[in-house]
Amino acid sequence: LKDSFIETISLSNPINAVLLASGRGSNAKALLEYCRSEENLKSQNPWNICLIITDNPNAGIISIAKDFGVHCEVVEYPKGTKENAVERREQYSASLIKTLKINEAEITFAICAGFMKILTSSFLDYFKESHIELSRVINIHPSLLPSFPGAHAYEDAFAYGVAVSGATTHFVDEKIDNGPIIAQSIFNRSPSDTLGSFKAKGLSQEHPLFVKTLKIIQNNKLRFIEQPQNSRLVVQIIEDENEN
Ligand code: GRF
């Protein structure tokens, strides 16, 4: 079977996006700074992060949002037991969607920047492309996927003894850290690295990688190839001729 080429995702102008974050917010800050840059503002499809949602009332992102003048809503995750975990996940998605609708302009993209909750298919459906099995929801993960998915990627990769690690940006699907990979960046682990220095190396790569990913998307550089052999949608990035 031959791979079939599929067109790219639809982009609104501006790309009104919600940013979801649970913690410190350093990735969010890097993205908000990029949104203010001339490069973004002059782009054909400028990113406009118009809403921030956090599940954590103590998240660093709350004051960062204030600094950037972006509305931030705290949407706490419903408490409960293991038995009603699925129900609570659905409830949470419904609350997120309700919060999206408070925004005046239609929000067409979701960016997860250290968001530690699992998104359900009803949330993903809100951002679904009509012609491909893909939602306009992206995430950054601090490992070279598919290695070390999950909530403790730096710790897991370091403990495993990897010689290289990195970060991955990808589209989000129903499975954890699984959707089509957009971009990756790598770093070497040196013998003197501690978990702290290993994480610091990684984080310093996450920020530019995430910004690069926003640029790839807004410049309409993404193409999707449907791989019949494993039913996976893979991303191909169109390079500029003058880029290396
Ligand atoms: C980052 O390492 C991100 O990749 C991971 O959680 C961390 C969040 O850091 N999912 P920050 O809140 O962006 O500073």
Summarize the structure.
This protein is of the alpha/beta class and 244 residues long.
Structure notes:
It is a single chain. 31% of the residues lie in helices and 24% in strands. The strands form two sheets. A seven-stranded mixed β-sheet has the order 4-3-2-5-6-7-8, with helices on both faces. Strands 1-9-10 form a three-stranded antiparallel β-sheet, with no helix packed on it. The protein contains seven helices and ten strands. The chain has helices at 26-36, 38-41, 61-67, 85-100, 121-126, 153-160, 195-218, and strands spanning 4-6, 15-21, 47-54, 72-74, 109-112, 137-141, 164-171, 181-188, 222-227, 232-237. The protein has 244 residues and is of the alpha/beta class. The chain binds 5-O-phosphono-beta-D-ribofuranosylamine (GRF). Residues 21, 23-28, 113-114, 140-142, 203, 206 line the site of 5-O-phosphono-beta-D-ribofuranosylamine.
